[in-house]
Amino acid sequence: MTNDDLTPSDGAVLIVLMAEARSVLNTELRSRYGINVEKDRRVKLNRLQLVHSEKSGNTYLHELDDKGWTRVHEDLDVSSPRARTISGALAALHGNLRDRVLPRTRCHNLTEMFSWEDIAASEPSTDLEARLRAAYTALAAKPTAWVSLTRLRPFFADVPDADVDEALRRLNRAPDVTLVPEENQKSLTDADRVAAIHLGGQDKHLLAIGLR
To answer: What residue ranges define each of the domains in the chain, with the CATH number in brackets?
Structure first.
């Protein structure tokens, strides 16, 4: 398990944002789920780059960040001595979705499974550039948003890494596609470094489509 000092409440926030797979107002989280992402928790989850938050009027919009989607594939401690039955049910749901239900679907990861866009084709497409664009659309919070290759790679578990790299190189030649390095190199994880593609003498970690 990643050593990030997440509390059970932090883990519960990640699971709810995973299920929503969109930007959610703090007021909506509070009214629908009884979850209030208070300042200390928001600052912590933002600092860990697990959740992206933006000011919206008198409240905040919250959405799982790239590292948050990666984190929900790992175990999350949601235990609570005050609500053992509920926390046990949440842990069982999360673990079984990841370990038992996901492998039976046509999806490669939880990001794809919870996406509002159905991008898991019934038959694997041989057009990797088209698949890359479809995966980007499912992952991007909005057109032209940056998406890490760490989140993109699991969508291509059925394809050799070398073939995905070559498809990314071809895609990068399109006028609306940009691949760039992560500016904050200290924030890179081992998974980020493995997922990167080497182009133009640099390791590129982030993809955006729709830029002109």
So the answer is: 8-103 (1.10.10.10), 119-209 (1.10.10)
